Amino acid sequence: MTKVEVRNGNVDNALKRFKIKVARSGVPSELKKHKCYEKPGVRRRNELKEMIKNSRKKNRNRD
Asked: Which residues contact 46 (CB under 8 A, 6 or more apart)?
């Protein structure tokens, strides 16, 4: 459970820190992953597409 202390009544700052902590813990990505079932073959195919996309992006930035 992620907890953030509100200092000096500044709720906006506490909310910002809470969102950062939740994002770093990986909760949104896990929730997205478990939203619907994906067949193992489809998962491998999507991961391969993602790797190709990332490698092209890195190579484009190198030039």
From this structure: 38
Question: Would you state the pLDDT for residue 2?
Answer: 84
User: What does the block give as tokens for 15?
Assistant: 């909310």
Instruction: Render 1-63 in DSSP notation, one character per residue.
Output: -------TT-HHHHHHHHHHHHHHHTHHHHHHHTSS---HHHHHHHHHHHHHHHHHHHHHHH-
CA distance 25 to 2: 9
pLDDT tens-digit map of 14-62: 999 999 999 999 888 888 888 999 999 999 999 999 999 999 999 987 7
